[in-house]
Every structure is written in structure tokens, then in C-alpha cells.
């Protein structure tokens, strides 16, 4: 093989690699596009300021996070071992406040709008309605870590507690 042939093959190989890298980069989805869909809750953990850890929703919580492409979300989480109501009929309205309150302690729900800060890999949620009315109209920001079908959201609450929620893409 002469020198000219080697240079031509080398140049074509280099050009091919550049084209492949460009196509691969162009096909990579934004973080927002990767998050759109339904996610099932795997675990939650809170680390208090004194370093103690707790799982408010238990070791095997149930939950779902739905992030739609138009920027709307819904989140529902609950302990699987919450006590059943003792009343019958319309349990929500007929249950005594203390009993209902205890059941609500093991449950969290909210919905609103969401967006992504791509540069900081941050999920921003704006609460429109929530089980805890004090959070309505507020905004939360959490760090996003996405590995395959696993989504980890981490942040700090207003009391300085670090929280982490792990989700898996719903199939």
C-alpha cells in the first residue's frame, strides 16, 4: 500500500469517526425528555441535621411520580401499612379527625407544574395543590441523578434535613 492510500484511508476513518460522534451527540435527549413518563417509588429516606436517618413512608413505600411532556406533574406516596379506618360508608367524611389525621401522616400527594434546569440537573416543581396545604403555591428544587431506568431525587428541606427519593421507570 502506498503512502497516498494510507493517508486517504486515515482521512476517511477520521471523518467517519467525527460524523459518528456528531450523530451520537445530536441523538442524546435532554434531561427533561428523559424524565417524561411514569416512575414508581422504590425508597425514601430523610437524614436529619443530627445525622439520624428515618423512613417516614416505611421500608417499602408505594408511590408514583408522573411527569408529562407539557410540564404538568402528579406525585402520590404512601406507607403500605397504614391502619384501615374503623368507620364504614363514606370513610373520608365520616372518619373522626384524629383517625383520619393518623392515616394522612403516612401519605403524601401533590400536583402542579415542573421544569428542568438542564445546566444544574435540577428538577423544579411548583405545587398547585397538596395534602399539606402550606406547600401550595411553593416551589421545590431537587438534584436529579438518572442512571438507566433509576431516578434519584435529592434535596434539603426548609429545616435542613436532607431527603432522597428513588424511583424506577414504570414499564
Strand order of the largest sheet: 1-3-4-5-6-7-8-9
Beta percentage is 35-45%
Unreliable runs, pLDDT <50, ≥5 residues?
A: 22-26
Order of helices and strands: HHEEEEHHEEEEE
Which structural class is indicated by helix and strand composition? alpha+beta
**Which CATH class of the largest domain is shown?**
Mainly Beta
CATH architecture of the largest domain: Beta Barrel
Fill in the CATH topology of the largest domain. Lipocalin
The dominant shape is elongated
Largest sheet: 8 strands, antiparallel, barrel
The figure for the number of domains is 2
- Helix content percent band: 25-40%
User: Distance N terminus to C terminus?
Assistant: 54 Å
How many DSSP-defined strands?
A: 9
Nearest-angstrom radius of gyration? 23 Å
Care to describe what's here?
Strands 1-3-4-5-6-7-8-9 form an eight-stranded antiparallel beta barrel. The chain folds into two domains: 1-29; 36-169, Lipocalin (Beta Barrel), CATH 2.40.128.280. With 171 residues, it is an alpha+beta fold. The longest helix has 25 residues, at 3-27. It has helices at 3-27, 31-35, 91-94, 97-105; strands spanning 37-47, 53-54, 62-67, 72-78, 107-117, 122-130, 139-147, 150-156, 162-169.
